[in-house]
């Protein structure tokens, strides 16, 4: 009976969840990535991204066709920096590079009311007419 309880305890509390058993070299790397990673991305990746985006008209910043290549290069660069520093990727620092473009698009307007009524009447008239032909 004690054997079963110890097995259950091992399954529910694996030894990997105890941070005190972590290597002292692993934990500081994970916890210290934020500032070191941000500085490296700013130095190596953002300068190029800023130059690429400055070449575009601000009206094009929300056009995926125009910004796909700069964002792809920024993504690859930030990934390589994270890989080199041993940081997780993607991380919350990656989100600061995206633009807010939701308000820049034209809203879709419904079609003219007269056209909608005419099409509805045509469908109803056509469905009644075909019932008698069967």
From TrEMBL:
InterPro entries, alphabetized: RAMP, RAMP_sf
Swiss-Prot/TrEMBL GO biological process terms: calcium ion transport; cellular response to hormone stimulus; G protein-coupled receptor signaling pathway; intracellular protein transport; protein localization to plasma membrane; receptor internalization; regulation of G protein-coupled receptor signaling pathway
Principal location listed in the UniProt entry: membrane
Coiled coil region boundaries: none
Example of a GO MF term: coreceptor activity
Keywords assigned by UniProt, alphabetized: Cell membrane, Disulfide bond, Membrane, Receptor, Signal, Transmembrane, Transmembrane helix, Transport
One term under GO cellular component: plasma membrane
Function: Accessory protein that interacts with and modulates the function of G-protein coupled receptors including calcitonin gene-related peptide type 1 receptor (CALCRL) and calcitonin receptor (CALCR). Required for the transport of CALCRL to the plasma membrane. Together with CALCRL, form the receptor complex for the calcitonin gene-related peptides CGRP1/CALCA and CGRP2/CALCB. Together with CALCR, form the AMYR1 receptor complex for amylin/IAPP and CGRP1/CALCA.
PANTHER family per record: RECEPTOR ACTIVITY MODIFYING PROTEIN RAMP, RECEPTOR ACTIVITY-MODIFYING PROTEIN 1
Protein name: Receptor activity-modifying protein 1
């Amino acid at each position: 009976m004690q054997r079963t309880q110890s097995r259950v305890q091992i399954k529910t509390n694996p030894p990997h969840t105890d941070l005190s058993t972590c290597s002292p070299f692993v934990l500081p790397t994970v916890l210290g990535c934020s500032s070191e990673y941000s500085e490296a991305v700013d130095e190596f990746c953002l300068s190029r991204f800023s130059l690429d985006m400055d070449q575009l008209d601000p009206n094009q910043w929300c056009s995926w066709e125009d910004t796909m290549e700069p964002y792809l290069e920024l993504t690859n660069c930030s990934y390589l920096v994270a890989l080199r520093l041993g940081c997780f990727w993607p991380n919350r620092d990656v989100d600061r590079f995206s633009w807010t473009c939701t308000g820049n698009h034209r809203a879709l307007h419904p079609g003219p009311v007269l056209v909608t009524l005419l099409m509805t009447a045509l469908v109803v008239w056509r469905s009644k007419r075909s019932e008698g032909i069967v």
